[in-house]
Specification:
single chain, 317 residues, alpha+beta, Uridine Diphospho-n-acetylenolpyruvylglucosamine Reductase, domain 2, Uridine Diphospho-n-acetylenolpyruvylglucosamine Reductase, domain 3, Uridine Diphospho-n-acetylenolpyruvylglucosamine Reductase, domain 1, 3 domains, five-stranded antiparallel sheet, 8 helices, 25% strand
């Protein structure tokens, strides 16, 4: 329970009326891929982009706002997320085909976009079938896999800023770099226009099947958050982690995957603190062994549980 709630008031009472749904103290562990983490002080599921814009414009500027997709590449700390957590669900999942382009809502699953492209013989978007998450998250992280990145296919993106203003953004304005977008976290993506090319249906289907097969053979299909650390220039995170002797390393209920050691997994009883502490121990050992500081690819949000100190960084950031 938040300090506001303990005093008989709650943040939800300060927020504007919406057409979507506002929920106080909403559990998040059930929606994160790690299956850990505390609640959202307030969870907002907007009805559509107009509802979202009005909400952002009317929300007091001191209230922090965090956007969650399907929480695949995310670690929510055990104390939960103060402020408002926004999840773009129904109203943001439409996928529309326009020639060789696909217009997808920010809540659309990357896999569904890849499958829609396959159904309409649009090539160049197959890599999205190997990216766990939504289009909004893919924009935020310039997500990529299996030879493709969002920067290669994004033609335009639409978003709403903290003042409720609509933004129509070009690739230059998005400022994509490796696993990064230049826009501040307060900007909420609502849709993207992706450019493909006409392709042979059989070849597109074969590539998607190959990606699925490769993922199954090389990545754990358990409670994980995907790739934990970004690859340093000219090297790979998994190789450095393996060379530092971290494969299978455990902290509490968290473990470095035996199958792919750039994945951390919840073996069943992990806390978010276990997972973050394990990640920092991996960073410490890799830095000690190689002099290379790994950087988190997984986003860590929220606060530590009351009475617990934050996890200390294990290597230079």
């Amino acid at each position: 329970m938040t300090a506001l709630a303990q005093k008989g008031a709650h943040l939800i009472d300060r927020l504007p009326r919406v057409r979507g749904r506002l929920t106080a103290d909403a559990p998040l562990a059930t929606v994160t891929w790690f299956r850990v983490g505390g609640p959202a002080e307030v969870l907002f599921r907007p009805a559509d982009a107009d509802d979202l814009a009005a909400f952002l414009a009317g929300t007091p500027p001191d209230v922090p706002v965090t956007v969650l997709g399907v929480a695949s590449n995310l670690l929510v700390r055990d104390g939960g997320i103060p402020g408002v957590v926004i999840r773009l669900l129904r109203g943001f999942t439409d996928i529309r085909v326009e020639g060789e382009r696909i217009v997808a809502g920010a809540g659309a699953l990357d896999l569904n976009v890849a499958l829609s492209a396959r159904e309409h013989s649009i090539a160049g978007l197959e890599f999205l079938s190997g990216v766990p998450g939504t289009i909004g998250g893919a924009l935020r992280m310039n997500a990529g896999a299996y030879g493709g990145e969002m920067k290669d296919v994004v033609e335009r993106a639409e978003a709403i800023d903290r003042q409720g203003r609509r933004l129509d953004l070009s690739p230059t304005e998005l400022g994509f770099t490796y696993r990064h977008c230049a826009l501040p976290p307060s900007v909420v993506f609502t849709s993207a226009t992706l450019r493909g090319r006409t392709g042979a249906p059989g070849e597109i289907a074969a590539r998607i099947a190959e990606i699925d097969r490769t993922r199954g053979e090389t990545q754990p299909r358990s409670r994980t958050g995907g790739s934990t650390f970004t690859n340093p220039p000219g090297d790979s995170a998994w190789r450095l982690i393996d060379a530092a002797g971290c494969r299978g390393l455990k902290v509490g209920g968290a473990q470095v995957s035996e199958k792919h050691c750039n994945f951390l997994i919840n073996t069943g009883e992990a806390t978010a603190r276990d997972i973050e502490a394990l990640g920092e121990e991996v960073r410490r050992r890799v830095y000690e062994a190689s002099g290379i500081a790994l950087h988190w690819e997984i986003m860590r949000v929220g606060v530590a549980r009351a009475g617990e100190a934050p996890v200390v960084s294990g290597a230079p950031s």
